[in-house]
Amino acid sequence: MFSISIIEDNISGSTQTQDVQDVTKLDSSQINHPDETSTGYTASIKGDVNNLNKLKVHDSLKTRSNNEEIKNDKEFNNSEKRGNTIKYWVAGVIWIGLSVALFFIHGKSSQDGDPYQGFKQYINYKARCDHIIQNVELFTRTLTVIGIVFLILQLYLIFIGNHGLFFVDDEEYPLEPQVFNDRDPNSNIITRSQINSHNYDKRKLSKISKSSLLPPDDSYDIITTDQLETPEHRELKNKGVCLICLESYDETHNHIVQLPCAHSFHYKCFVRLRKVKGNRTDFQRPSMICCICTLSLIKYHQYLVDYELDHKQVEFINK
User: Fold this and answer.
1) What is the pTM of this model?
2) In total, how many domains does the chain have?
3) Structural domain span for residue 210
4) Distance CA 185, CA 30 (A)
């Protein structure tokens, strides 16, 4: 198209030049040769006719070229659309092929070699989900029923407990079984089994426990520092060790507490230990038992009282 425009410019330029030359020739012919004027004019008219014919030819060529370009563009667009359509079809066929292949592979790898096992599992998926939901709902209902029953039982136990229908007062009835004591009244020997099997009045034991932080005086002996120097207690001083602080008695100058079970402690350690859990008032609190063998000092005291025994004249056997 660029070449055609150049040709058109050249033709128009040459036409204008020819017209100027013809006019110049006409002027000169009119002046010098009046007879030749008609001949030159006729030739110029023929040149104009030829130029018009050339322009028509070029216009027809230009129109034909434009039509060919439009046709080529349409063919290119159509071919491009056909190519895209083919690509889409190929991609779809590949996707379907892969899906079918995976389906059969999954079916072959399933149990019993059933190639349709994967498809069956997919069909039964909703049924399995419904079954799981039903199981969860059943489990939730069961827990709800159990919780309601448990709550009712708790309320019932609280009700009968507050009204004295279920619980028993420890101070009203003895905790240990009633055993007849075969102790010889003339014997001065007391055993631990006799103390444990004796039938105590729990109210008396509780009263003694609440009356003091320390056990009764007749349930232990105090050995002073002066008594430790006597031959009777010299061995205890030289070899004895406080079972609370683990210090030997010969290194400290303190009174010693000796229990009926033969366990001994520094007096200050014994008092300090009695204050442990001092807010308790039952006869089994730490201040009323031996911290080594758990002998109940209150029961020991009450046993002496019940049988009217003097703690200085009895012999205790810790078994």
Assistant:
1) 0.42
2) 2
3) 189-317
4) 188
At 230, list the tokens.
């006597």
- Residue at 77 is within a domain: yes
DSSP state of 229: G
Q: Which residues pair with 256 in a beta bridge?
A: 223, 266
Cα gap 148→140, rounded to integer Å: 12
Residue 10 amino acid letter: N
> Mean pLDDT, to the nearest integer, of 14-41?
44
Q: Which residue has the tokens 């439009």?
A: 70
Reading the block at residue 269, the tokens are 């350690």
> Using N-to-C axis directions, what is the helix angle for 37-109 and 2-32, rounded to 10°?
180
Kindly tell me if the per-residue pLDDT of 176 is higher than 50: no
**What is the radius of gyration, based on Cα positions, of the chain?**
64
> How many degrees, rounded to 5, is the angle at CA 244 between CA 238 and CA 248?
20
Evaluate whether residue 23 is within a structural domain. yes
SS3 content of the chain, % helix, strand, coil (to 5): 65, 5, 30
